[in-house]
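Re: duplicated header lines in exported structure tokens

Our pipeline writes sequence and tokens for each protein into one text file. With two proteins the header for the second block appears twice in some exports. Here is an export where it did not happen, for reference. First protein block:
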Amino acid sequence: METSQRDMLLGTLTWWGFHALLIWMGVSHFLSRDITDGGLFASDLFAGSLIGATVLSLLRLSVGRHLLRIIALIGILLVLFHVWQGKAQWGSLTDVAIWAYTFYSFGPSSWRHSLYTPLGVFGKLKT
């Protein structure tokens, strides 16, 4: 089955766009943070880890993919913790959707997993 140009373009745009979203999520945390307290919070470590793992994933290193899956699980657990405490907001649904997609899209069951092979999904031989 041949990969069409349209599928290649959509796959590439999705891959780069989702990485851009993950980086923006990490960067926006630091841009909106109040720096007058001078402390380091767990949310800072989470956002920094997200940025680092995304950069490693952009370099197509498997460790980046694994770290993104761990961060996605932590993100889902944080949202569930907020729901359990009764502090859930409508944005929590968006967070769960983003983290669930992150967990799926960087997993072995996804076609994006093949992006981490030396040839990548679009460079594979067509059958």
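Second protein block, exported in the same file:
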Amino acid sequence: MGDVIDLERFRAKLAADQGFRTWLARFQEQFGPDSRLQDLSDQTLLYLASPGEENLYVYFDLVMGAQGLGGSLRFRLDDLDNAAKLKIMDVAFALMDRVRFEVMRRLGWVEEAPGQDTPIIQLVQQAARGGTEFARELPRLASSHPDFPAYVRLRGLDRAVFLRRLIPRAVGEFGARMAGP
């Protein structure tokens, strides 16, 4: 009698193998179907959280690879229709938000980052399926943060804007902490 194969696990492993193909070479870290944002090294997290076109293509490699669409070269060569490109960009930007919220979590600026315990490949799949629902999940600013009194007076979308305005400062502080004194 043959072995029982966990089809979901197999699909996750295949998506991880294809999605993380370029990440393995770029970051010199191990990534697999169970890798979570909180498992990333500080150096990798800082790179992913930093702005820049090349950084964005690293996300495209992950998103496209995990979905079996190849790598970001297809995106650059305009080998995809506009609808597919927009979907890839939406997923990449949603994932970038999650990475930046993880930076804020490590700094102690937010209580918990949404999806922090979810494998990265599953986050990609959720973002690809969930659309705006995935992007609306936001962390709560930590009560110890100096701007917390202003934050609690806000509601709904204003809190989202408030949190996102903190991102450049968070990424800068995270980088400064890594650089040391």
